[in-house]
Design a protein that fits this description.
- The chain is of the alpha+beta class and 218 residues long.
- 17% of the residues lie in helices and 29% in strands.
- The protein binds fe (ii) ion.
- The site of fe (ii) ion (FE2) has 5 residues, from loops.
Amino acid sequence: MSTIAPPRNVQVHDLFPSPVWMTELEDFDDHNRRMLEYLEELRARDQGLKRSNVLGWHSPDNLQTVDEFQPLRREVLALIENDVSSLLRLDTDRYEYHIDSMWAMHNGKHAYNFVHRHPGCIYSGVYYLQCAENAGSLNFHDPRADVRMLRPPALEEVSYTYHIVRYAPVRSRLVVFPAWLPHDVGPNLSDTARVAVSFNVVHRPRGSGTSAPQSGMR
Ligand SMILES: [Fe+2]
């Protein structure tokens, strides 16, 4: 402990924070079952896409147009239009948000997703349909590369010093984060498939029906 007298009236300003929103969707058991049944049938006839997935199955990315996924789509947009917009002081009078792409990941044992971002959109997120313990955490990485140049010894990591934050998947949990925030999914070490639905959100002028073209890793 330092013996130097501390200065008075010290302020700390938290610059450039990276928000991650989480909520548990209530009364979603029936919706979860319908989405899982749809995905099982789809996986049996569709070889899927290759993105950040290693060993896992990545569905086509238009699930936002499928009936079984409309309740989830509405919950995501409600969170964006309310919680995200109010925290970030977004202009929801002139701009609206919509889901440009939505897809599912089926990660069997040892499947994982390498570090990636979601270019071409503003917010991204994931919703967990099925997961056991040790099913593979969602790991967010500090996007500020410069902070890794020198890391002073610390007694413990706090929000100012940790560089990876891990969240275990929880069934019926919805997570939304800025699309630029790097993340990966750890290997599924359980014997139960980890099934999650991911999505990308973009904005457009209200009533225009158009938005920026999409691309990129996910
Ligand atoms: Fe992702």
